[in-house]
Amino acid sequence: MKEQVFARVDGGAEEVRHDTRYYWDNSRRSESNRINLQRTLSGEAFWEDENGRQSVPVGKIMLFTQRENSRYGFPATGSQPYRHRYLSIDPTATAIPIFNRIRQDFGSVLSMPAQSESSALFDQVFHCFSQRSFRDRYHESELITRLLTAIYRQQVEETQDSDPIEYGYYLLQNQHTSPITLKDVAARCGVSREHFIRSFHERYQEPPGKILRSLRLKHAQSILEATRLPIKDVALASGFSSSNVFCRAFRSAFGMSPADYRKQLAT
Asked: String of b and e for 138-149 (b: at least 16 CB within 10 Å)?
């Protein structure tokens, strides 16, 4: 049997709940391979896991899987009906890494403001499912991946003002293959280069320059292993300013030149 590689929506609806009888314990649910996205339209819900309880008001969405240790429902203090839309997704291999990364970096209760890219994509996926109007399975899977990516991007962008050091961390993680410098990152975070380096080191126990270099070297390794690109092109594609800088960093990290590393792979 061929492996299913395209994500698909296998459930979705808009619901209104009025009291605490609306309660789900995910650890007791039977399905194990679904991811769920539940967006608050009015009122609020609560979310609870090993990290405690959170409110899920308008402008928020909760992400979870079934048979995990978490719970959600209508709060005892709720005074308005809880109206929400949910999507249940069979993710396969295409969406799981993004979904897991979102929760790892930001948790289960996330921002989804009205008029945002993520809310527009959520509504598009919801309406396509409700009206059975996906063009084909590829279109469906593409929209799911775009939705999860937009949710991740939304969280990153909101850290720019609320937590500039964390925002810098995401810039390094996602833009290390560009010729970005620590001065560039600090400027985009709205802090000085010195403050960024000091605060970053205090929080993550490693200097940002070391992390940036490691990310670039890892990317370069994958290119060396998968292609026959010239060393100069590998360097530029990995964010290094020149092949000389790349070769020095590579030799320092791995004890051999990129060319020797490639020869070793061939033996």
From this structure: eebbbbbbebbb
